[in-house]
C-alpha cells in the first residue's frame, strides 16, 4: 500500500468523524449582528462569573483574596 492512499483514507475518516462539528462561519448574520450577539454573550458570562465570585467571597468572612497578613 502506498503512503499517499493511506493519508487520503485517514483524511476521509477524520472528515466523517468530524461530521457536523466545527465552526459554522456562515450563520446568516451580518458582522454587526454577530458583534452584538457575541458582546451580549460575553456580558452575560462576565455577570455570571462576578455573581459566582461574590457568592464565594461573601462566605469566607475575614481573610481571603487581597487580605494582607501583618
From TrEMBL:
One matching Pfam family: SERF-like_N
Domain Small EDRK-rich factor-like N-terminal, chain residue ranges per copy: 1-35
Biased composition regions of type Basic and acidic residues, renumbered to the chain: 1-15, 32-47
Top-level taxon of origin: Eukaryota
Compositional bias per record (Gly residues), positions renumbered to this chain: 58-70
InterPro entries: SERF-like_N, SERF1/2-like
Region (Disordered) residue spans: 1-70
Family per record: Belongs to the SERF family.
Protein name in the entry: Small EDRK-rich factor-like N-terminal domain-containing protein
Native species: Capsella rubella
Lineage per the UniProt record: Eukaryota, Viridiplantae, Streptophyta, Embryophyta, Tracheophyta
